[in-house]
Amino acid sequence: MLVAALTVDSIGNGLFAPLSLVYFVRLTDVPLPLVGVLLTAANLVVLPLPVWAGTLADRFGPRYLVVAAAAPAAARVATSPRPSTRSPPPR
User: Where are the domains of the chain?
Assistant: First the structure.
């Protein structure tokens, strides 16, 4: 069960970056270079987290860590904007 959860999580995280880039460029007025810089900065911030997560997994166990990490991810999905039927603004 843990491997299946990690697989689904990896697929979702892998799809987030390219789809968020498309979302921000097509549906907001944020220019592409700024979106690229912001997504790069966000990835640089989370880059050292696996080292910290490994320490926590050694201390508390991987199952507890996956459950603890899934709660904020579920909250993020629950509060993310929903697509609408209106077309994107003209450029």
Answer: 7-47, 48-79
